[in-house]
Amino acid sequence: MFKFSNLSYSKQRLAIIAAFSFIPLALLVTFAYLPVINMFKYSFSDWNGYSKRLEYVGFENYIKIFTDPEYFSVFKVSLYYFVATFVQMGLALYFATILSFQTWFKNVFKGILFFPSLMNGVAIGFIFLFFFKPDGTLDTLLQALGLGSYIKLWLGNPEIINISLAGTSIWRYMGFNFIVFLGAISSISSDLYEASDMDGANRWHQFRYIILPSIKRILQLNLILAISGAISAFDIPYIMTGGSNGSKTFVIQTIDVAFKYSKVGLASAMAVILLLIVIVVTLLQRLLIRGEED
Amino acid sequence: MYTLKRTLANGIKYAALLLGAFVALLPIVVILFASLKTKAEYATTSPLTPPVNWLNWANYAKAFVNGNMLTGFVNTAFILIISIIGATLTGSMIAYILNRFKFKGKSLMLGAFLLATLIPGVTTQVSTFQIINKLELFNTPWAAILLYLGTDIIAVYIFLQFLDSIAVALDESAMLDGASYLTIYWRIILPLLKPAIVTVIIIKGVNIYNDFYTPFLYMPKTSLQVISTALFKFKGPYGSQWEVISAGIIIAIIPTLIAFLALQKYIYNGFAQGSVK
Q: Are the beta carbons of B24 and A113 separated by less than 8 Å?
């Protein structure tokens, strides 16, 4: 009878390399690389997603995206999310730093600040619909604080809708950055703090000269995720507003164009642009990190 | 002067923490309040007012039954379990051969997995959709399962990182006893990877449970809805019945809360590890 263990190790090695890599590689090619190749192909066509033939139209789709303000203006919306991520990281860093030192109810605070980032996206969308709706949580709270005159149509006014949505996104993702920073800070040896205490350093000095340099790489990594996250914002605005009142993001636009208006060619061109932006930003960041290490 | 400054800094610290906790909790707490109010009570009281009867489960029953949330939980559980077992097996298998063997094309393979992390899933959705369609998997749970298995390479990273710390000497001594590579993987590597597996289970589990657009795009059929899409459907018929929607929201959050409280320690470690790469 055939037994795998009777084979010589070199034959086993070949067999196991082939067997163990087959499924992961097949999945990788089918769901990571093939879509990208097809996307480039579709982006030069006017395909609608179901017809048998696709007509190649050259760069027509790309020209349309960059010249038609309807398509290009969605990038402005990304800026709100981009700015928001800086606020988010600042808050995360502050909370991670203070909770790295002796604090009452440390674990309770940790849990409360982190929990939102584990929550279901649709649930968060609804929670904040309730939060921002007229006479909702925010309005009632402002009224109770005597700030009733500041009440606005948080999700109805195109001037502030993206601030409301970006605020929701801060609420949702801050805890994730926070826990990552906390992990990085906790790996700093406590000897460093003790030595600096003896030298008379205060908390700010410790933050500036010990914590910040030690977590620089994580900080940069988070920044990158922030940039691509800002461009690919989708869940929160889609669930809360469906992209109405000027809250349409690039991804909502892409998905609408592809699935609502059946313009797969045009949508693919948009997706290619999105992909190129993300790749350029990531490469820039890698270059920057490498440059500093030299 | 010095102590005054420290006291002040301490005051600011606790004020910030309390404010942070308040901001994190308030939106959820008002939803809990609303979910326990009767229709009339909801209409006449402010969102910040606690419910009169803390044991009014009527909205929960309505949300659970009318919102088909049981179907949602069953489908979510099915997809979650298969995807996680699959991700653990495929991820650890590829990590095992990449970490332990030298072979032609190895660096190419490693590079292919690395490069794929650069591609954000949402950007390729349009053409991924066509592939799922061609495979005739649209509107089947296998669409989601395959996508969760294939596009996420985080598991491979975590396993690779962890395999570095498992001594090769262990493999070698097993080989002296005549163990096959298959036995080494199954009997030695996999059990030792346990902490990494827990990390992968948590990170993938959270992602899959919370994912909205994969089931929304690929499995629109009502009988296939997961928790996310079941909850999203409340937007239509219950648009103004916030006491029912609120109950649905709380139902969707409860499993996350239980998992969080039970696995806190692992979750903190897992997230710190998974994102450092």
A: yes
What does the alpha-carbon distance between residue B274 and residue B160 come to, in Å, rounded to a whole number? 12
Task: Enumerate the β-bridge partners of residue A45.
Answer: A56
B178 and A33 in contact by Cβ < 8 A?
Answer: no
Token couple for B98: 């990449």
Cβ neighbours of A176 in B, within 8 Å: 271, 275
Residues in Cβ contact with A241 at an 8 Å cutoff, skipping those fewer than 6 apart: A155, A161, A165, A247
Q: How many CA atoms lie within 13 Å of A96's alpha carbon, on the beta-carbon side? A: 30
Residues sharing a CB contact under 8 Å with residue B195, sequence separation 6 or more, in sequence order: B162
Per-residue pLDDT of A76-106, as tens digits, reads 888 899 899 889 999 999 999 889 888 888 8
Rounded distance, CA A81 to CA A280, Å? 19
Q: How far apart are the first and last CA of chain B?
A: 44
- CB contact under 8 Å between A32 and B249, yes or no, is no
Ramachandran sector of residue A172 (left: φ over 0; alpha: ψ -120 to 50; beta: rest): alpha
Q: Nearest C-alpha of chain B: how many angstroms from A260?
A: 12
Question: Smallest Cα–Cα separation from B248: which of A116, A123, A131, A236?
Answer: A123
Q: What are the distances in angstroms from CA A114 to CA A50, A189, B23, B231?
A: 44, 24, 12, 23
Using DSSP's 3-state secondary structure scheme, residue A56 falls into strand
Place of tokens 């298959």: B182
pTM of the prediction?
0.88
- The owner of tokens 């696995």 is B263
**Which residues does residue B35 pair with via DSSP β-bridges, in sequence order?**
none
B64-116 confidence digits (pLDDT tens): 988 889 999 999 999 999 999 999 999 999 999 998 888 888 888 888 887 78
Judge whether B47 and B198 are in contact, CB under 8 Å: no
Distance, in Å, from the CA atom of B114 to the CA atom of A28, rounded to the nearest integer, reads 11
In angstroms, the CA A163 to CA A81 distance is 8
State residue B156 phi and psi, 5-degree precision.
Answer: -60, -45
